[in-house]
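Hi R.,

Here's the chain you asked about this morning:
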Amino acid sequence: MMPFSYVRPARVAEAVAVVSADPAAKFVAGGTDLLNLIKDGAEQLHHVVDINRLPLAGIGVLSGRTIRIGALTRMREAADHPVVRTQLPVLSQALLASASPQVRNMAAIGGNLLQRTRCGYFRDTGMPCNKREPGSGCPAQNGQNRIHAIFGGSQHCIAVHPSDFAVALRALDATVLTTGPAGDRRISLDEFYVLPGTTPHIETTLRHGELITAVEVPLTPMAARSRYVKLRDRASFEFAVVSIGAALDLRGRRVRDARLAFGGVGTRPWRSAEAEEALRGRDLTSATIAAAADAAVRGAVPRQHNQFKIELLRRALTGLLTEFGG
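And the predicted structure, written out as tokens:
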């Protein structure tokens, strides 16, 4: 493992300054992903900046219409918070379906959004990987690609984004709050993650030295009627093969509005405007659900070993929407 320096600042400005000054520096909170990447050699860092002393933890409701979750809030705290459980159930369910109890006790909300892919080629430094070493190639294209993306991929990368939490947030129109050398920013989840294209090593719109400070989620009737389903190879401590975060605004059986986000299938948390439109303004019947399921998989580009994800996603969405009352 490459040696690195370690600092633990008490002020946000100090932490930002240290990371901004060195391209090979990163923030660390729970360390449940970054430290493994350093040990495996997938991350080469000069400086690690521990942000756990910064005042970025806690959950609060703003004017009764928005909840703000601090970046250093632990996953367990967020999942157990009474407002999250009752008014944002998809978020609580997604967090509880993530990792293990031990990891949820350590992992921070901000770090969860920035965790790296579980693609074996990325984590094996003996293999080429455009995400780890730009220009070296993507062996997943014709190799073992069962867990890889069927949406949003390119010839340079088909690695799946791993966060359950991010999928749920994308179904809730969430906003990421940041601070950095250029000041504070508010970034919608729709704009936070970027497609791999020709630069798969660039995963978000964060600038170097920019620090996530919080996540804000609007508290709406639709968010209160939301659910998360996760299909995986084992019952716990496993990443999604297919997952769905759904929020519906229903009046009787009529769908007034809908948000559908998917995990385990995209190079970023995936949102299907086509599937949402297939539901919007219609009664939640078996025919409407079937149309939404068909729309959700339209445009999928499977590889040799992950074609099954198309039918799995279609069936998972059908089952979840039926639970809503279809």
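The longest strand covers residues 242-251.

Let me know if you need anything else.
M.
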